[in-house]
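We read letters as residues; the integers encode the fold. Take this protein.
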Amino acid sequence: MTNRIFYNGNIYTADKNNTFVEAMYIENGKIKFTGTNEQVRKYEDMAEGIIDLNKRTVIPGLIDSHIHLLAYGKSLDEINLSGCKSIDELIEISKKFIKDKNIDSKKWLIGFGWNQENFDSKTMPTKHDLDKISKDIPILFKRACLHLAVCNSKLLDMAGITADTKIEGGEVDVVNSETSGILRENAINLLEDYIPELSREDKKEYVLKGIETLCSYGITGIHTDDLGSNNGGLEMLDIYKELEMEGRLKLRLYIQSRITSLNEVENYFELGFDKYKGNENFKLGSIKLLGDGSLGGQTAAMNEPYENTLERGIALFTQNELDDIVDLAHKNAVCVVIHAIGDRTIDMAIKSIEKAMKKYPYISVRHGIIHCQITSKEALEKIKESNILAYIQPIFIAADSKVVEKRVGKERSKHSYNWKTLQDSGVTLTFSSDSPVESPNPYENIYCAVTRKDLEGKPEAGFLPEQCLNVEESIKAYTINSAYASYEENIKGSLEEGKLADFAVLSDNIFETMPDKIKDIFCVMTVKGGEIVFDN
């Protein structure tokens, strides 16, 4: 490892006093000293490199606390439909992609990111729309939330999906006695046996491709949901171990292992996954549960029906099932992070965690709720009382602010996305992107947290503006709080002496930039363990 001095900077340490310093001396991958330009000169003889930061602002390396690294890397080779403003545009972009990539009937066309709320018609595409793209190439387009997808007729026929197809925890949409091509939640799993299987080398390359892009954002660590039966499970574990041994992990990885049943949790402990402690670069961490769906797809599980409908979404566990899984994990001192968007699932998650904490009060575990979107006043209070972490994706507000009142009404929406209420009550917030559901760009994420606006600056006053966070709160949610979630707050997450030298050098001073301009900030250098892993 190279010993280096970084000086002449505006370095935000993110310590408890929000201290700024001018310079740092890095030794053996850790911060040996922080202070003034003059003070750091005493280390010049020991430094192998001296870097002038040219007054640029430096922040601790960003830690995305919930992402899907393999899926994100793979998405970089798929068609991104997030910019489509109509179904016609979706069709034309797809036709051009087929032509440019020479896709034929032996391959699939896979896309992601479409959102009907961005379309002029506000309607979802159907198999009839995708058939206009091709009737010979199997086509699968996942909605931005990834909890809903649409297929063309070719793919539906391949998978044998008809209007009569039923699956627990999922739905096949039927219109006029025939399937529309829209699949919700577990119904998407009906396609698994037909989707072209990725080779081990494919997965490895997608992971590396994802890591390279994430490094360019100043991200030095992630909590990734990559270890589950849907990803090849143990093979992904081997891939990460292999990359770590090869010294190719430019990010620090904390694995959220996807679990879908009590039986899988029992196997998790029987195989000793909880005993694999790993190291500073790669470690197995929490158990991840997918509790419900999404707001946009109306599959998030609600206590009361969605507005103007009788539908209440889809809960993927019963209360008893959730209780048993959380109980077993808590008893073994492994934290559980639960994807919960609807108020029904959030209430279920709180109940399960409360029961486990009361049953084993002598065991301290940092459980969390991922997304934590449609909440009630009572739920917000219970989250604080039970010391539950909230894994927030501020970028979600960009799309959801347009639909939340349509989906759940004004009364329910006013207690939703209540980040400031949670922050002020003492709840630990961690920031993440859920990429590839949204872009992993952290500066767009922070912009949304600070302004409560979409990327076009709407609504002008921000959605529930009293819930805006400030820049310091947002950066801490992206750094020291995410480190706390993985029990690593003593070794990373802030730029203090003795901690890992992970940091990002920014294009602009994020603390003085006008809020509406935060989204335009970019990273010019990323340093992990004192080594430069990205330099623009």
